[in-house]
């Protein structure tokens, strides 16, 4: 393990590359280089998009899933963006195509379309603006229109609708995409963990089903929101125990940040995020500047980049 870490660090220097890693990576990929690991930056999907616009390096190795690496490429078309496994997908991103959005727009003419960033670049290109879990609410509120199309996460849409209803007259028209990880947190699984940890507070990502939210907040405090909201909430809460209803390895991030607190989770992992390993990260780095790079480099047609740029750029104004 020690050798692969130092080999990756050495190659990053030689190849002029930086590593951006999502909070859902396995713990060994979450360690920053300054702490003996390999990552230069770790963050949520919005944090990684912001960082992608700041990096000076010629090459970015993206330890996350493909839609995230594509976003980095759209924001930095002059740079080379690599992903250690191009098969690292996402059930939300694959639930909707650009053609589906075109049909939605025909069905609801003039209604603005907000695309969760968990979509592919071609799909984003058909939308008015993108959002991440961190700025979805702010972006929805920013529109004058009372009708908005929100794609593709139906549960996140219903949860956002719950908040919007209390404060505005806005109605979201939803797609039926689901995160295959967050949909597994059910009301009954929440109730049984809560029964074992009555003092614990709950941490729920926007992507969990509505009935899970209802069960979780029954007589229990906590937060429903983005990955960033979850991290912030734990920092500000006096509670010692938390039930995490989000990707299992976010628990590693939380434990690193708050070692004195306890995080209980059924540990549901995203199979797509887990396709990224130290081994294929090393291979991706090795490929830079060789004919093998095509295996790892994000290569989007120029017109797809152009169309996806504006909706992504608009999202970046809501940080
Ligand atoms: P964040 O926007 O919270 O980083 O979420 C990414 C994701 O894939 C959630 O499942
Ligand atoms: Fe997609 Fe869910 Fe995996 Fe996030 S956790 S990448 S939304 S499948």
- Report the uncertain regions: none
Strand content: 15-25%
Number of helices: 14
CATH architecture term of the largest domain: 3-Layer(aba) Sandwich
User: How far is the first residue's CA from the last residue's CA?
Assistant: 37 Å
Number of DSSP E strands: 12
How many domains would you count in the coordinates? 3
Percentage of residues assigned to helices: 40-55%
CATH class call of the largest domain: Alpha Beta
What is the overall shape? Answer: globular
Radius of gyration: 20 Å
Kindly report the name of the CATH homologous superfamily of the largest domain. NadA-like
Name the strands of the widest sheet in spatial order: 2-1-3-4
Hetero ligands: 1,3-dihydroxyacetonephosphate, iron/sulfur cluster
Oligomer: single chain
From N to C, what is the helix and strand string? Answer: HEHEHEHEHEHEHEHEHEHEHEHEHH
Biggest sheet architecture: 4 strands, parallel
CATH topology of the largest domain: Rossmann fold
Mean residue pLDDT = 97
Strand pairing plus helix content: what structural class? alpha/beta
Structure description:
The protein is of the alpha/beta class. It folds into 3 domains: 115 residues, NadA-like (Rossmann fold, 3-Layer(aba) Sandwich); 83 residues, Rossmann fold; 83 residues, 3-Layer(aba) Sandwich (Rossmann fold), CATH 3.40.50. It is 42% helix and 16% strand. The chain is built from 14 helices and 12 strands. Helix 3 packs parallel to helix 4 and helix 9 packs parallel to helix 10. The two termini are 37 Å apart. The model has no long low-confidence stretch (mean pLDDT 97). The structure holds 1,3-dihydroxyacetonephosphate and iron/sulfur cluster.
């Amino acid at each position: 393990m020690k050798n692969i870490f130092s080999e990756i660090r050495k190659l990053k220097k030689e190849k002029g590359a930086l590593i951006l890693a999502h909070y859902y990576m396995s713990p060994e990929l979450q360690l920053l280089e300054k702490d003996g690991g390999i990552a230069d930056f770790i963050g949520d999907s919005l944090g990684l998009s912001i960082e992608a616009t700041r990096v000076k390096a010629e090459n970015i190795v993206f330890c996350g899933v493909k839609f995230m690496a594509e976003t980095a490429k759209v924001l930095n078309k002059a740079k080379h963006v690599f992903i250690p496994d191009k098969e690292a997908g996402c059930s939300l991103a694959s639930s909707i195509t650009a053609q589906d959005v075109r049909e939605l727009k025909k069905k609801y003419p003039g209604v603005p379309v907000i695309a969760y960033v968990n979509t592919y670049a071609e799909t984003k290109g058909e939308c008015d603006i993108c959002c991440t879990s961190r700025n979805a609410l702010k972006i929805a509120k920013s529109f004058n229109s009372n009708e908005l199309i929100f794609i593709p996460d139906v549960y996140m849409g219903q949860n956002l609708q719950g908040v919007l209803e209390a404060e505005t007259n806005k109605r979201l028209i939803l797609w039926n995409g689901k995160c295959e990880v967050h949909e597994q947190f059910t009301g009954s699984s929440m109730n049984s963990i809560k029964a074992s940890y009555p003092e614990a507070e709950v941490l729920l990502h926007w992507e969990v089903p509505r009935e899970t939210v209802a069960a979780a907040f029954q007589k229990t405090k906590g937060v429903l929101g983005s990955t960033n909201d979850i991290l912030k909430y734990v920092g500000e809460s006096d509670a010692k125990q938390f039930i995490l209803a989000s990707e299992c390895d976010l628990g590693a991030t939380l434990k690193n940040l708050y070692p004195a607190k306890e995080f209980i989770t059924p540990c549901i992992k995203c199979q797509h995020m887990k396709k990224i390993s130290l081994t294929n990260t090393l291979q991706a780095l090795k490929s830079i500047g060789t004919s093998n790079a095509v295996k790892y480099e994000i290569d989007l047609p120029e017109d797809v980049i152009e169309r996806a740029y504006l909706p992504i750029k608009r999202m970046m104004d809501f940080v």
